[in-house]
Amino acid sequence: MSVADIRQKYGKFELLETGMADTPTEQFTRWFSETLEAGVPEPNAMTLATIGADQRPSARIVLLKGFDERGFVFYTNYESRKGHDLAAHPHASLLFFWQPLERQVRIEGRIEKTSAEESDEYYRSRPLGSRIGAWVSPQSQPITRNALESRNAELTSSMGDDPARPPHWGGYRVVPHYVEFWQGRPSRLHDRLVYRLQDNSNWALERLAP
Question: Would residue 188 show up in a list of annotated catalytic residues for this protein?
Fold first, then answer.
């Protein structure tokens, strides 16, 4: 079988305007709850796409760690490649793909950092190894495995059980202006319903051709 012959038939669900919530956050909450109920692996895994100072795109998987009407939150090293990208161009796109439910969610918006208090609270909730790891890794910089493991051993020994959050590590919030809910349908006639922010307060819903 060639790559071109790989196909997936869709048709488990449909997505109609009459069943959509008033806001994308409410609709996302519904769908996210359904991914949990369905046992979808790593439902909070999402592709984060950014643009660097060189105008070139870059994408990677990160984990959603919170969401509400303000936006969608993830945490990372501010000095990583993604951090430099977001400093140069404070806009980003997120993509969730929940294959067992034949669903995607696309989110586009501006970027803001979470407050120090929010970042501290989440940092304290992480396992100790992950908290120390935030100090260990000069993320996106060249390093050998031996150097990384040596630094981890050194800091694990010296930092104790309650390390403070590194100043170069914290949260970002994607504040959306565009949220698209995609439901796979037969014959590639997929449902695509989009919320677009109007006047910084109201959301308009429309259907896009698949």
Answer: yes
Residue partners of 114: CB distance under 8 A and separation at least 6: 73, 170, 171, 172, 173
pLDDT, tens digit (0-9, with 9 covering 90-100), for 37-84: 999 999 999 999 999 999 999 999 999 999 999 999 999 999 999 999
- Catalytic pick from 30, 60, 188, 207? 188
Q: Tally the domains of the chain.
A: 1
Assess if residue 3 is contained within a domain.
Answer: no
The string of pLDDT tens digits covering residues 101-114 is 999 999 999 999 99
Q: pTM for the whole thing?
A: 0.94
Kindly state whether residue 140 falls inside one of the protein's structural domains. no
**Cβ 64 vs Cβ 73: under 8 Å:** yes
Structural domain boundaries enclosing 45? 10-120+170-207
